[in-house]
Design a protein that fits this description.
Radius of gyration: 18 Å
Number of helices: 6
Shape: globular
Number of strands: 0
Length: 158
């Protein structure tokens, strides 16, 4: 996967496909979902960086610890252990491998919040219901994502 401001190796692409397959997707659906996920994620990450947003390591590490604690008490903990077995990692290896992705998502989240604040300040929703306001925001944000992806002129090299 090659874009104007980023590239994704075949190995990374396949790793995401494999995770979707492990989650129950058929191979062709996993490939399509991977294309969408990675294009949107990396395009919005680039936008976040361009607007001065970075991931916050402290927030990411806190999130990992909270998630681990929740997993310990979850009734479906066996599913998590089966997932780890399927990807051939220990819990610690898995969470260590997730830090960079979580940092990206944190930067994207911060950028998304700034977009939402700007959107709400220019669109007062005086006559809209909360559901209509939420739908308008989601449509606006998806348009931002779509534009960011389009701007990247992504080529799929598989």
């Amino acid at each position: 996967m090659q874009a104007k401001d980023f590239s994704i190796s075949n190995q990374k692409f396949q790793q995401v496909v494999d995770n979707f397959v492990l989650s129950g997707y058929r191979q062709e659906d996993a490939v399509q979902q991977t294309k969408v996920l990675l294009a949107e994620k990396y395009a919005m990450y680039h936008e976040a960086l361009q607007h001065g947003f970075k991931g916050r390591l402290e927030c990411v590490l806190d999130s990992i610890e909270q998630t681990k604690a929740g997993i310990e008490e979850a009734s479906n903990r066996g599913d998590y252990e089966a997932f780890l077995e399927g990807i051939g990692m220990t819990s610690e290896e898995y969470w260590e491998s997730q830090i960079d992705d979580m940092m990206m998502y944190d930067a994207i989240h911060c950028y998304q919040e700034s977009l939402q604040e700007a959107f709400e300040s220019t669109n007062p929703f005086t006559e809209a219901t909360p559901e209509e306001s939420q739908q308008q925001w989601e449509e606006y944000y998806q348009a931002c994502v779509d534009q960011a992806v389009e701007n990247q002129e992504i080529e799929y090299l598989r």
